Amino acid sequence: MDGITLLTFFVLSVFVGFEVISKVSSTLHTPLMSGANAIHGIILVGAILVAGQAESVFILIVALLAVLMATVNLVGGFVVTDRMLEMFSGKKKPTPTTEGAAK
Length: 103
Prior knowledge:
This protein is mostly helical. Helices cover 82% and strands 0% of the residues. The chain has helices at residues 3-22, 26-52, 57-89, 99-102. The chain starts with a helix and ends with a helix.
């Protein structure tokens, strides 16, 4: 495929992805993020495999950069998912203190 065709696919996929994600309700967002985190984990494993089999310095540098970016993406996804779950869990009950019992 030539560059124009690849660029067209990329631009169209960005528009379709934006439309699909913007229509997702907040109750479905957390399960979708969990699925995305699983995909990012697979990407991280793939980047590690490529880095382990690198035959030139350039490929090694690019693969290690991919490992770094995949790790940041994976950890960030889990942080966002955790924050979303905290939003849905409601208010936490205060724990009784033992100050009164100690006196």
